[in-house]
Specification:
- The protein has a single domain, classed as Multidrug-efflux Transporter Regulator, Chain: A, Domain 2, CATH 1.10.1660.
- With 91 residues, the protein is an alpha+beta fold.
- Strands 1-2-4-3 form a four-stranded antiparallel beta sheet.
- α1 crosses α2.
- The chain contains four helices and four strands, in the order ββααββαα.
């Protein structure tokens, strides 16, 4: 886990740490990342997951009292990118 000096909370999780937190197999996280259905940052050949993304998913699940579909979140993000691209980069 990467941490900041002023805060003991991680900034990013490894894929293995993310999988452990979500109690899924790391292959599930890698597959979702490759399908653009899970937020991640690629650093050369390695992926890291923003801790804020994991926290946001947990908060949404708690707030809704139900399932958070990261594929739906990713689809909305892709749609927003396509709309921005069609508008010439304007949002």
């Amino acid at each position: 886990m990467s941490t900041t000096s002023e805060n003991s909370r991680p900034t990013f999780y490894t894929v293995a740490e993310t999988a452990r937190l979500l109690r899924v197999d790391p292959a599930t996280i890698y597959r979702a990342i490759r399908e653009d259905a899970f937020p991640a940052v690629r650093v050369r050949t390695r992926y890291v997951v923003p801790a804020s993304a994991v926290e946001q998913m947990a908060a949404e699940a708690a707030e809704r009292g139900g399932c958070v579909d990261v594929a739906a979140v990713a689809a909305a993000r892709r749609m927003a990118c396509e709309v921005a691209r069609a508008l010439g980069g304007r949002s």
